[in-house]
Specification:
424 residues, 9-stranded mixed sheet, 8-stranded parallel β-barrel, 12 helices, 22 strands, 25% strand, binds pyridoxal-5'-phosphate
Length: 424
């Protein structure tokens, strides 16, 4: 057995790549490509790293489901006792369908609609993470009209630089997220005075794919300063929520392990006298990113003067991260062989030059060979689109020697459902 470094439970047995005990080329043969494959053991192992870091502490882990919101994936985390961080009414319906308890759901996002608030109050979610003073007023009105009390936490923008891609950094002054640090106390005082609201916590989320502990420690200091000020003003906080954002290894990145990060964070919390509080965290990518791969088939090789292209049957509609963030995904063959490698740009069939999956990759491949695009568990299927009227891929969840189809390949008819032809 030959483990893929950084991708737990993805390994070569002989020359065939496996997820747990299942051969990936057999899955590609059975279900076709592109095909997302997830390892349940890998997800649970990532969760266990957080749980180790929280041993003896009061912490609720709320999986940020926008990273991967497929029902089968949600079921794994619901059965493991996770709560969920949601960002839309659609995510609320999905996670309830997957078996989540409403009180284990927290609702983040800068643009919650009245209808979304009404539905979340009706089912009884645990907490609204409010992101602006205007939202606070609307939530108060909606809750009062419904005769309900909304539990609220206010998302603070701590103004720290997480040193990640600008599109996934969220805790800087110029970002749209959260309430400005200097407005926080006034916002809590307003929340405490409004009808229909009950202040329960404080939260922040500084960005995504963070590979350094320093921004977390800085943000924590700034949040704890605020907790002291808010409680000094007579407003009690039941929980402190540090958001998500821990990075994964895409291309030799070396983020801290979840338990190591939390050992450092708890050292600070203990030193400041907050160690026995109730905490929440909202990890997304770090729970699922390296638990998934996208299997794809080489359609054509197209040698060129400046570039050689390897054209595959997965595209930017399936794997949007390279086009959106210039992100790197490792690409490996499903079947290792000794053919000489050439350098290729690996691209999809979509009619955009931005439709590339990997640049300047050394691959020994022929048309008909199959590849795995790694680190595809987070922000791939959940961001997939139907651009070029391409159906979304199928998904399989591997559990030991078993493979469960958790999403069928989308057909053209599925895509046209709900559309209406004009009258004659
Ligand atoms: C996206 C998001 C998360 C999860 O971020 P990851 O980088 O995937 O861990 C957590 N909290 C909020 C509010 C988010 O928007």
């Amino acid at each position: 057995m030959n483990q893929l470094p950084g991708h737990p439970h993805f390994a070569w047995h002989g020359d065939a790549l496996h997820a747990e005990q299942v051969r990936l080329d057999a899955l590609a043969q059975q279900y076709g490509t592109p095909l997302f494959v997830y390892s349940k053991a890998s997800m649970l192992e990532a969760l266990a790293a957080y749980q180790r870091g929280f041993a003896g502490r009061k912490v609720k882990i709320c999986y940020a489901m926008k990273a991967n919101s497929s029902l089968g994936v949600l079921q794994v985390f619901a059965r493991a006792g996770c709560g969920f961080d949601i960002v839309s009414g659609g995510e609320l319906e999905r996670v309830l369908t997957a078996g989540a308890q409403p009180q284990d759901i927290i609702f983040s996002g800068v643009g919650k609609t009245r209808a979304e608030m009404q539905r979340a109050l009706a089912v009884g979610i645990g907490c609204f993470n409010v992101e602006s003073e205007a939202e606070l007023e609307v939530l108060s009105a909606v809750a009062s009209a419904a005769g309900k009390t909304a539990a609220v936490s206010i998302r603070v923008n701590p103004n720290v630089d997480p040193k990640t891609h600008p599109y996934i950094s969220t805790g800087l002054k110029g970002n749209k997220f959260g309430v400005a640090h200097e407005r926080t106390l006034a916002t809590y005082q307003r929340a405490a005075a409004l009808p229909g609201l009950k202040v329960v916590g404080i939260d922040c989320h500084i960005g995504s794919q963070i590979t350094d502990t320093a921004p977390y420690l800085d943000a924590m200091d700034r949040i704890l300063d605020l907790v002291e000020a808010i409680e000094g003003a007579g407003i009690a906080l039941q929980h402190i929520d540090f958001g998500g954002g821990l990075g994964i290894n895409y291309n030799g990145d070396q983020p801290p392990a979840a338990d190591a990060l939390w050992a450092q964070l708890f050292a600070k919390l203990d030193a400041r006298g907050f160690g026995d509080r109730q905490f929440m965290i909202e990890p997304g990518r770090s729970l699922v990113g390296n638990a998934g791969a996208c299997l794809t088939e080489v359609l054509y090789l197209k040698p060129g003067e400046q570039k050689n292209f390897c054209i595959i049957d997965a595209a930017m509609n399936d794997l949007p991260r390279p086009a959106m963030y210039q992100a790197y995904h490792a690409i490996v063959p499903l079947q290792r062989k000794d053919s000489a490698a050439e350098t290729y740009d690996v691209v999809g069939p979509v009619c955009e030059s931005g439709d590339w999956i990997g640049r300047d990759r050394a691959l020994g491949v022929q048309a008909g060979d199959r590849l795995a695009v790694l680190s595809a568990g987070a922000y791939c299927m959940s961001m997939a689109s139907n651009y070029n009227t391409r159906g979304r891929a199928a998904e399989v969840l591997v559990d030991g020697a078993q493979a469960h189809l958790i999403r069928e390949r989308e057909t053209a008819a599925d895509q046209m459902r709900g559309e209406k032809l004009l009258p004659q």
